[in-house]
């Protein structure tokens, strides 16, 4: 029983991690709090639903298509709304407001499309194969979700730590000016980061859809809050922090639900978050305050 | 190699450069001296493309680079070591050097170049996995120069490199600068430490409130009465007398 809950917590947590990382990347590099990422999640889930319900393509292909489409969506959002604002001096809050605009637009569009009711994934897909380990029951879909989430995180880790572009992204998150002087094209980096962040949100949307079997057009709103919490707990701009914080949040939620009351699920979570932040205002793994950029 | 003509640049709303003319020839060390706020950093940042000039032209190796974006100016071989924090404090030493070579297309001698930086600055080799922000001020300066070297500069611009370093490190720094010149790198040195800079440079420019008021061979500037009084701390005799009475 407890092992089952722990594993469920890790599965849910790994999805939270992906959402948290997507917020953390945008905050870290662009100092941008993008509320629309929640709706990008919802769009990713909805796209996966359309693909899996109507086209007969398999999960792997659905994931691939969603990843590419949402990455493109992230780039488009940046180019159309955030980039023009960045050129202005007093740009700090304006992009955030624009992102709320995007979030409402996407929500309304999805609402129109689905008729405002949650849509369910085909049973045969989300049920998967059921198997037992000891006393615990798992479905193959849980394993798939966890596998995809962990693989994506490892890929991201490798990309940010070892590749030249990854190091350039980390450089850019510290200083636009100094990165420029090293020959880094900031505009390229911004596009790459916008794409990756949005792609992670889209992917986590698919994983949410597969885990719960149903999605609503308002799914984004819930997950935006979770994403913030993970980002804050993890520490500003810390991708590794977000990975761990997401899994921690998932565990807290599932374990508090099974041992305390379901009604107060989010209450326990946020009480704990507030307490943690009181003692560690920079987050559990945050060691540095957000950098004030000199550009 | 670098020819600047009639350059006007605003810094914020202030007219920071008012018609600068400056030439750097291949292989030489040229220094620009001036007090705080004279426009030294604005000049170097305009060359780097971080600030767009209002008027005038900058040519490098015969090509006009006045409107070229900063990352492309780096690709052409003009590298700047900025003043203050010039490194990326959250990356480790090795990653800083890797990112220093970001602008390079060739991959061949990359590993050897990192090794040669470690040889030049043994301290960096000892700390290659350490977060750069934890290095001392002197080590950070060496790392910043190492990063620039990784980019294979044709023209290296140093913005007040001696600022905040101990006298011993300043001497070491200038020895390195003259070493780099002997290896064929052209150097534009912006400094407040006029004595040291003029000892090593071939020529010097004196910048005051955005204008070049004097330019000459370094040896002549060292003998110039005005320069000695304003930048080398020599007390003018007249002022000396008034203070005594």
Description:
- The complex is a heterodimer of chains A (295) and B (245).
- In chain A, 48% of the residues are buried.
- The longest helix of chain A is centred in the N-terminal third of the chain and has 29 residues, at 2-30.
- Chain A has helices at residues 2-30, 37-55, 59-86, 94-114, 123-127, 140-162, 164-174, 176-181, 186-212, 219-234, 239-259, 265-279, and strands at 119-120, 130-133, 136-139, 214-215.
- The mean pLDDT of chain A is 89.
- In chain A, helix 2 packs antiparallel against helix 3.
- In chain A, 75% of the residues lie in helices and 4% in strands.
- With 245 residues, chain B is of the alpha/beta class.
- Chain B has eleven helices and ten strands.
- In chain B, the strands form two sheets. Chain B has a six-stranded mixed β-sheet with strand order 6-7-8-3-9-10, with helices on both faces. In chain B, strands 2-1-4-5 form a four-stranded antiparallel β-sheet, with helices on one face.
- In chain B, a hairpin with a 2-residue loop joins strand 9 and strand 10 (211-217).
- Chain B is globular.
- The chains are: A mainly alpha (295), B alpha/beta (245).
Largest sheet of chain A: 2 strands, antiparallel
Number of helices of chain A: 12
Which oligomeric form is depicted? heterodimer
H/E topology pattern of chain B: EEEHEEHEHHHHEHEHEEHHH
Question: What is the number of strand segments of chain A?
Answer: 4
**Share of residues in helices of chain A:** over 70%
Instruction: Report the uncertain regions of chain B.
Output: none
Strand order of the largest sheet of chain B: 6-7-8-3-9-10
- Level-2 CATH architecture of chain A: Orthogonal Bundle
Total E-strand runs of chain B: 10
**Basic shape of chain A:** globular
**Order of SSEs of chain A:** HHHHEHEEHHHHEHHH
Straight-line distance between termini of chain B: 52 Å
User: What Rg of chain A is obtained from the alpha carbons, in whole angstroms?
Assistant: 19 Å
What share of the residues of chain B does DSSP label as strand, in percent?
Answer: 25-35%
Describe the main β-sheet of chain B briefly: 6 strands, mixed
Instruction: State Rg of chain B.
Output: 19 Å
Question: Quick one: which chains have the greatest interface?
Answer: A-B, 19 and 25 residues
| CATH uppermost class of chain A | Mainly Alpha
Q: Give the strand order, joined by hyphens, for the main sheet of chain A.
A: 1-4
């Amino acid at each position: 029983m407890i092992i089952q809950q722990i594993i469920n917590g890790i599965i849910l947590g790994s999805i939270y991690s992906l959402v948290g990382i997507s917020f953390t990347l945008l905050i870290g590099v662009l100092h941008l709090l993008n509320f629309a990422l929640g709706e990008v999640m919802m769009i990713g889930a909805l796209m996966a639903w359309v693909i899996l319900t109507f086209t007969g393509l398999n999960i792997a292909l659905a994931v691939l298509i969603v990843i590419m489409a949402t990455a493109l969506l992230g780039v488009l959002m940046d180019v159309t709304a955030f980039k023009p604002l960045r050129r202005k001096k007093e740009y700090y809050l304006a992009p955030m407001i624009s992102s709320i605009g995007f979030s409402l637009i996407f929500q309304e569009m999805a609402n129109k499309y689905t008729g405002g009711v949650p849509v369910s994934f085909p049973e045969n897909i989300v049920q998967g194969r059921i198997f037992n380990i000891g006393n615990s029951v798992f479905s193959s879909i849980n394993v798939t979700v966890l596998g995809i989430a962990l693989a994506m995180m490892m890929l991201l880790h490798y990309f940010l730590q070892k590749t030249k572009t990854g190091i350039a992204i980390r450089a850019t998150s510290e200083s636009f000016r100094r990165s420029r002087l090293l020959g880094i094209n900031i505009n390229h980096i911004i596009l790459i980061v916008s794409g990756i962040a949005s792609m992670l949100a889209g992917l986590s949307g698919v994983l949410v859809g597969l885990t719960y079997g149903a999605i609503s057009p308002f799914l984004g709103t819930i997950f935006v809050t979770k994403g913030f919490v993970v980002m804050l707990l993890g520490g500003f701009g810390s991708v590794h922090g977000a990975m761990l914080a997401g899994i921690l949040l998932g565990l807290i939620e599932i374990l508090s639900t099974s041992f305390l009351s379901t009604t107060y699920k989010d209450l326990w979570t946020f009480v704990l978050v507030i307490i943690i932040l009181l003692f560690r205002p920079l987050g559990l793994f945050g060691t540095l305050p957000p950098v004030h950029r000199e550009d | 190699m670098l020819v600047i003509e009639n350059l006007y640049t605003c810094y914020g709303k202030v007219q920071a450069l008012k018609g600068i003319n400056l030439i750097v020839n291949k292989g030489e060390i040229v220094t620009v001296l001036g007090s705080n706020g004279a426009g030294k950093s604005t000049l170097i940042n305009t060359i780097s493309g971080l600030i767009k000039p209002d008027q005038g032209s900058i040519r490098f190796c015969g090509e006009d680079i006045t409107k070229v974006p900063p990352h492309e100016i780096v690709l052409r071989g003009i590298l700047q070591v900025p003043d203050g924090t010039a490194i990326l404090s959250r990356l480790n030493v090795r990653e800083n050097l890797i990112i220093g070579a970001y602008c390079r297309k060739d991959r061949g001698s990359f590993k050897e170049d990192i090794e040669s930086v470690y040889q030049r600055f043994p301290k960096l080799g000892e700390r290659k996995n350490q977060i750069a922000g934890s290095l001392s001020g002197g080590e950070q300066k060496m790392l910043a120069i190492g990063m620039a070297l990784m980019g294979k500069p044709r023209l290296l611009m140093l913005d007040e490199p001696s600022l905040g370093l101990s006298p011993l490190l300043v001497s070491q720094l200038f020895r390195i600068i003259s070493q780099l010149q002997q290896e064929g790198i052209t150097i534009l040195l912006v400094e407040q430490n006029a004595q040291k800079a003029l000892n090593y440079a071939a020529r010097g420019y004196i910048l005051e409130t955005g204008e070049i008021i004097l330019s000459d061979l370094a040896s002549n500037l060292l003998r110039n009465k005005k320069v000695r009084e304003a930048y080398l701390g020599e007390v003018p005799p007249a002022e000396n007398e008034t203070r005594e009475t």
